[in-house]
Each structure stands twice: as C-alpha cells, then as structure tokens.
Design a protein that fits this description.
It contains 28 helices and 23 strands. By secondary structure, it is an alpha/beta fold. Helix 17 (459-475) runs parallel beside helix 18 (497-514). InterPro entries: Glycg_phsphrylas (IPR011833), Glyco_trans_35 (IPR000811), Pyridoxal_P_attach_site (IPR035090).
Length: 737
C-alpha cells in the first residue's frame, strides 16, 4: 500500500497536474458525462484533442492576470496509453478535381493523428470506457509544435512574433485546423470500428451503411465539431460513392447537436475564404447542403426572401461567413439546450425560424454533474453523513437524496451537517492563509463567486456589493455586521480587456478592504488565483453562499451552481439557467432569488436601459461608483478604472445597475439568516435533499432515451474466471460515440 511505501495519498493528489483541456463548463460537462456513461454501462467514447498545453496557468502580479504556459505533460501522464497502431492521416489545403467518378480532393498537406487512450471506469461496476485524444504528428518531421498548443498560450511561446499583425488570422486558422483535425480523425475511427463490427458486414440487399445510424450516435458538443457534418458527407459521397440523398439521410440520423450559449459573439461564424483555403471540398459540400436547404424553405415560404436570408448557412454582408450553428441544426436530427429556460430561448428567440419549421427537433436536456467527483471525492465528510442516514445507494441514484427531508428537523443531524461544513471551512481557511498570507475568520460566511470572468456573469455586481459592505462598516463601525470572507476566482480570456480590468478592480478593492484596521476581521476579500477543477474541489465543500448572478437569459445552464447545492451551500441567484430548476426542486423560498426575470430584461430593452437613472436614485451605488471612478481604490492611477465606469454607464449589455438594489437587499436577507445557524442549516439540508435531479446520470439517461436510442445496461461483465458465454450478446445494440 501507499502507507507502506511511506507515501501520503493527499500529498500525491497535490502533485498530480490537472488535465486542463478546456475552458470552463463545456469541457467539464463532457468529463462528467463520460463518468455517467461508464457508470450507466453505455458503450460510449469521448473524443477530443490532446493539447500539449492546457488552459494557461493564471498568476496574479500586482493585481493583474498574467498568463503562463501550462506544460501539463512535463512529467508525463500515467493514465494515457499511446496507440500508434491506430494512427490516421488528416488532410488540409489542396484543391478539388471533378471527374466522371465524382469529386477528388488532391494536392493536400497531411498531418498524422496519433491517438492516446485514457480509461474511464464506471462507478463500482465492470465497465471501463475510453476517452481517445488525438495528438498531431508530422509525416516526416515538418514542424508541428504549434498544432498541439491551445489558443491561449501562443503569445507566451512566440513572444518574438508578438508584433506580427497576421497573428489574429493565424490564430483563427489554427483553431479551425484543430476543429477539423479532431473531426476527421474521429470519423475515420468510427467508420473503421463500424466496418469491423458484425453490423458493417455487406448484405446482399442493404448498403453497407444502412444500419449506420442504428449503430452510431454522434453528439456534437457545441458547434466546435460542426465540420463533422460535411466531413461525413464527403466520406459517404466522394469515398464510399453513396448517392447524395442516402448519404444525407444517414448523416442527419447520426448527428445531434447541443447548444451551449446564446451570446451572439460566442456563436462560431467561419469566413468562407478561410474554409475555401483550408478545406475546399468541405466548402463545396456546405454550399450544396445550403442550396438544398434553401430550396426546401423556398418551397414552403415562396417569396419570403428575408426568411431565406435569416435561415441560410451562409451569412452575406461584409465578409461571407458560415454560420456553424445553422449547419448543425440542418445536419442533425435533434437539437437541445442545456436547461429548461435556455432551451425555451433557443426555440423562441435564437433559432425561432428553425423551430417553427421542425418543432419536434428541439429538446431540453438539463445539465448535471457527477456525484462521484462532486460529492464523494471532494466532500467525504458530507457523503459519509448522508450514507449513515439513507444508505450508500444514492451515489448511483441521486434522486434518493429526497429521503433527507425526513431529517430536516433532526437536531443531531442538523448539528452534524453544520459540523462537516465547519471542518471543511477550517481546512480551506488554512489553505488560504498558507497561500495568501491573510488571516481568515473561519466562522465568517464564506461567500464564493468562482467561474470564468465575463461581463454577463457580473463579477462587477459582486464587487459593487463588496464596496457597499465596506462603506457600511466604515460609516458605522459599532453596528452589528455579519462577517464575510468573499472569495472570487476565475480566468479571463487573454484578449478580453474588460475581464482583465475586472480582475484588477477586484484585487484593488481587496487591497483596500483587507488593510483597513476599521474593518478588521469583519470583511475579507480574496481573489482566488488560477481557478481550476482541483481548486474547485477544495473551495466548493467549504462554501456557505454560492453566487449565481448572471443577467437573466444569459447563462445557458451553469453547473457550478449544482456543485454548490450538492455540497451544502445556499444560492443567491437570478432566475437564469439551471437556477430556475434548482428553485423549482427546492422551493423558491429555499434559495435567495432576486432581480429581473427574462421578461423584465426584455421590457427594459424595449424602453431603453438608462444606467444613469439608477446611479442618481441609489446613494450607496453612487458612492461605490464614485470611489471606483475617483481612484479611491487606485490612488497611484486615479483614472485606472475609467473604462469600467464608462462601460457601466454607457454600454452595459448586462445591466448591472438595474439589479444592484435587489441584489444588495437580498444579501441583507442572507446575512440575517446566517445569524441563525440552525435555520440556515435546515435550509442547507432542504437544498441537498433537492439536488438529486442535477446528477449527470439523470441527464445521460435522457440523452440515451430521447436522442441516442440506447438502453443503459446494468449487466455485469463476468470476471476472468467465469465462463464468457454467460453474458454474450446481451449488450445493448447501438453505440453512443
């Protein structure tokens, strides 16, 4: 054992690098989904890119974010196994020749895709699935260093190229190369596996590929793998020589698309010129798909030119662009949002023309999180306490948490839940004191706001609340104040100026607050450096108050919200994303819901949002904004934050001032409840008891039932010493790829 080797498990865990192959919720969701698919016994594969450098490591220097390369493979990765025997070629550039036998893509540059397999074990069953990540290799030894590198770190590695003005275009081209790379390698792999199976065998009557959609389901995680649609068509039409209509029918039945955002700037739109240069045949196929699509629309809505323009896969005007979301909708048999409210917005606003045409295509699949990582692994104290009350089965069937409702008035249980939280807080406080050299009061309310830094997530509103609390303490130092440790963390995209200014502002405010003797231990502010999964596992179990305060209608779902709920934090939040369903499950009275609803935001847009009005009418808001504006928090550079203030007054798409008053009043209710430890803990228990819906097991069962048409299998594989025929051929038909 480790103990006999003189090793400490916790020390070992600290040494292991995070595989930071993603940026926030979308990548983490995929990881939870892999865990659930294996736990449910689904034959599923996760495919992606083996980035050599993950998301940057964030350092805070003088209050500013500085990006550092994340060389996560420095010491090797013990979980992966290279599979050179499955290496595949991927083609780029070149030109298209049209001949009697059809189209040929020729004179291409080849990059090799080398797969690395990582096992994905199910929880306490005999399933081990595979995550296959592709690494780019040069055929001879053409320099490919850049290819396996994520977007972010380019600048760090190529400081000398910083003045190169084509860097932006090169960055875009690299991103599209990566997207096609993962798609082309994965589809070859899927088709190879299909042909090798008994289903792929040629029948005298059927085409080889007739059964393809019955055996293969491909879920597109946002539009990033959208090129899979024209790529599968290229394989079927150009290589396998299927007729277009047959190929298109199979393609549509194979793909399903999950939308993850409604922010227009986040929707992928690739310039036609770039696609024509990089993937000339795919552009032709996309044009053909679009032509047939628009012909169909025109037949249903004659003379409706505006509808054709809105629904086209190609956006005219300025540089022609391909709307990848439109490509995904047209090329898939199912489209889903990731929370009820988001799926409603997808149907009625973002893609309303498509939903009007095929309402049955649009679905909801509310996101979830794996309780294995987000409870058992990160919060063993709470997991054990729950198991003592309701048994251990809840780990595989989280809906059983409702049984905890029976113990909401059990004084001993209430005390034990509070004790586990307190222990988690003390442990995290020690971590913070070690890392940040700030004295933390572990009996203060741990108020936590961790997620990517973005204007729509409104870290600025939290910041204004911090300043407001600070001003209240200074105005009346003798008055009772419920002590808080406010923890904000998250990374800003390297090119996102406003997000970087927000980080600097939070750190500037923290510096003033933390060093004011009048404030003392009543209020502390910490910006959590380099927020990542391993840090989330530490902070979430120690949290009292979870901040989920996006402008209604902007956060597609959120999953951090669910993690906090499951770990005994209360939520202050808007009616946005999955918060709506959390309130529905727990009862709205057991969350601190405040602020505008989607309808109110729309109403405010109609009449015109006037930030100045709120500033004029709310003295505490005025004081806080004036302090930021005047340099109270940046005395050496009084106009450091003028861009931020200017944005808040003149182009705040996310209406921070409009929700400020409701937010501050709601925070007063939070503080009031926190004074009554027993009432607070009872509310915590009601929340944990209502968190069952938010297991990714439930989410995956819904995908399996409604989109992939596969059955979860609880069948145990026989142990090596048992006869194999015992379970032969009882695995479900169908593969979720």
């Amino acid at each position: 054992s480790l103990l006999q080797l003189g090793l400490d498990m916790e020390e070992l865990e600290e040494i292991e690098e995070d595989a930071g192959l993603g940026n926030g919720g979308l990548g983490r969701l995929a990881a939870c989904f892999l865990d659930s698919m294996a736990t449910l016994g689904l034959a599923a594969y996760g495919y992606g890119i083996r980035y050599e450098y993950g998301i940057f490591n964030q350092k805070i220097r003088d209050g500013w974010q500085v990006e550092e390369a994340d060389d996560w493979l420095r010491h090797g990765n013990p979980w992966e196994k290279a599979r050179p025997e499955y290496m595949l070629p991927v083609h780029f550039y070149g030109r298209v020749e049209h001949g009697a036998t059809g189209a040929k893509w020729v004179d291409t540059q080849v990059v090799l895709a080398l797969p690395y397999d990582t096992p994905v074990p199910g929880y306490m069953n005999n399933t081990v699935n595979t995550m296959r990540l592709w690494s780019a290799r040069a055929p001879n030894d053409f320099n490919l260093r850049d290819f396996n590198v994520g977007d972010y770190i380019q600048a760090v590695l190529d400081r000398n190229l910083a003045e190169n003005i084509s860097r932006f275009f090169e960055g875009k081209e690299l991103r599209l190369k990566q997207e096609y790379f993962v798609v082309a390698a994965t589809l070859q792999d899927i088709i190879r596996r299909f042909k090798a199976s008994k289903f792929g065998s040629t029948d005298s009557v059927r085409t080889v590929f007739d059964s393809f959609p019955d055996q293969v389901a491909i879920q597109l995680n946002d539009t990033h793998p959208a090129m899979a649609i024209p790529e599968l068509m290229r394989i079927f039409v150009d290589i396998e020589k299927l007729p277009w209509n047959t190929a298109w029918d199979i393609t549509k039945r194979t793909f399903a698309y999950t939308n993850h955002t409604v922010l227009p700037e986040a929707l992928e739109r690739w310039p036609v010129d770039l696609v024509e240069k990089l993937l000339p045949r795919h552009l032709q196929i996309i044009y053909e798909i679009n032509q047939r699509h628009l012909d169909h629309i025109a037949s249903l809505f004659p003379n409706d030119m505006d509808r054709l323009r809105r629904m086209s896969l190609i956006e005219e005007g300025g540089t022609k662009r391909i709307n990848m979301a439109h490509l995904c909708i047209v090329g898939s048999h199912a489209v889903n949002g990731v929370a009820k409210i988001h799926s409603e917005i997808v149907k009625t606003q973002v893609f309303e023309d498509f939903a009007a045409l095929e309402p049955e295509k649009f679905q909801n699949k509310t996101n979830g999180i794996t309780p294995r990582r987000w409870l058992l692994l990160c919060n063993p104290g709470l997991a054990e306490l729950i198991a003592e009350k309701i048994g251990e089965d809840y780990v595989r069937d989280l809906s059983q948490l409702t049984k905890l409702h029976e113990f909401v008035d059990d004084d001993l249980f209430i005390r034990e839940v509070a004790k586990v939280k307190q222990e988690n807080k003390v442990k995290f406080a020690l971590y913070l004191e070690k890392e940040y050299k700030v004295k933390i009061n572990p009996s203060s309310m741990f108020d936590v706001h961790v997620k990517r830094i973005h204007e729509y997530k409104r870290q600025l509103m939290n910041c204004l609340h911090i300043i407001t609390m600070y001003n209240r303490i200074r105005r009346d130092p003798g008055k009772l104040f419920v002590p808080r440790t406010v923890i904000i963390g998250g990374k800003a995209a390297p090119g996102y100026h406003m997000a970087k200014m927000i980080i600097k502002l939070i750190n500037a405010v923290a510096h003033v607050v933390n060093n004011d003797p009048v404030v003392g231990s009543k209020l502390k502010v910490i910006f959590l450096e380099n927020y990542r999964v391993s840090l989330a596992e530490k902070v979430i179990p120690a949290t009292d108050l979870s901040e989920q305060i996006s402008t209604a209608g902007t956060e597609a779902s959120g999953t951090g919200n669910m993690k906090f709920m499951l770990n005994g934090a209360l939520t202050i939040g808007t009616m946005d994303g999955a918060n709506v369903e959390m309130a529905e499950e727990a009862g709205e009275e057991n969350l601190f819901i405040f602020g505008m609803r989607v309808e109110d935001v729309a109403e405010l847009d109609r009449e015109g949002y006037n930030a100045q009005k709120y500033y004029n009418e709310l003295p505490e808001l005025q004081q806080a904004v004036d302090q930021i504006e005047s340099g109270f928090f940046s005395p050496k550079e009084p106009d450091l934050f003028k861009d931020v203030v200017n944005m808040l007054f003149h182009h705040d798409r996310f209406k921070v001032f409009a929700d400020y008053e409701a937010y501050v009043k709601c925070q007063e209710k939070v503080s009031e409840l926190y004074l009554n430890s027993k009432a607070w803990t009872k509310m915590v228990i009601r929340n944990v008891a209502a968190a069952g819906k938010f297991s990714s097991d439930r989410t995956i069962k819904e995908y399996a039932r409604d989109i992939w048409h596969v059955e979860p299998s609880d069948l145990k594989i026989p142990l090596p010493n048992e006869p194999r025929d015992a379970v032969e051929d009882k695995t479900p038909n169908g593969t979720a790829a």
